[in-house]
Design goal:
This protein is mainly alpha-helical. Among the domains are: 88 residues, Tetratricopeptide repeat domain (Serine Threonine Protein Phosphatase 5, Tetratricopeptide repeat); 88 residues, no CATH class. Helix content is 71%, strand content 1%. It has a two-stranded antiparallel ribbon. Helix 7 packs across helix 8 and helix 13 packs antiparallel against helix 14. The chain is elongated and about 80 Å long.
Amino acid sequence: MAESLRLAAWRSSTLRLALLSWLAFAAGCAPNHGEAWVRSIDAGKLAFSAGHYTEAVAHYRQAAAGAQRIKDRDEALFLVARTLERSEQWDDARQSYAALAALVPPGPRAARAAFDEARLAIEHGDRASGWERLARALETHPSHGAAKLALAEYLAHVTEVGGETALRERIHQWLPRFAASESEQRLEYELGLSFGRSGELAHAHAALLSTARRHPYPKGGLTDDALFVASEIAEKHGDPRLAIADLEELLRVREVATGGSYERPRFPAARMRIAELTRDRLHDPRAARDAFRAVYRLHPTSILADDALWQEARLSIALADAAGACEVATRLGADFSSSRYAGCVAEICPVRTPPDGRVCPDYIKRQLKGE
């Protein structure tokens, strides 16, 4: 007993020492903002919350003037601009963003300020000048988090003003400059979409496939989108087998985790599309039935799971496979009882009873009859 008490006391003492050591370490690592900066920032936030924007701006400027670190200076000046924007003082806000973006040495808020200054100019000032500013911000900060949306908006503007030719000229002009940046794949992807909109399907498919392979998952954020759209382009071009191959390439890279694998958003739709292409374009109902089965077996939580199960049932009926249809009906009633198809199990297998007295909708009955 005495030994147990001594052991417990030792463990408690050790834990206390560890906690004190961690707190001392954390205190040593905490940034030293300076008491004056903290007081001014807190006063500014309090005034902002009360809607006293002029007072908040004064406190934030005072914090910037007394900042001991560039990061703190930037944060205070960014709050100045944000507050002016909130109070709809558009010109003053834009000038504040511009001044922050131009500071030397630049701080961590410089890039975001450049994008926000351009946005305000577009929305509340000289639109033409705003678009030019946005282009400069993109050229200067192509990997910033704000560049993703800004680039999409800018390219849409270029297309609206000058059409697809102007868009491609801009993309080709920027690609060397944006090489190895976060925006590079977006430019390549938009180039493929542009070819597709113009009906240049072979060029569109080649461009989309190229960007998917140059920026494979997980490096590329648009890799799956590029392969999925390439599949749609291949089908339009009259090559369903190539369309399926694009989707299979998308599905080939599956990130494995302990106990399973990570699900990427395009996966269920890609498998569903393979099944539909196999059924409708290759006219192979048995292979299509297997492909539909793979959708709900590999992606049981997808919103497409019960649709895939239902399509498998329809193909079983078309293949005169009554046992297969009844197997699907059993699974539908047991695993997808909340599905809109659950009330239709008797329609595909007369010996099955719908769960909870569910009724099959008339439009689904008409589908089964081919109406």
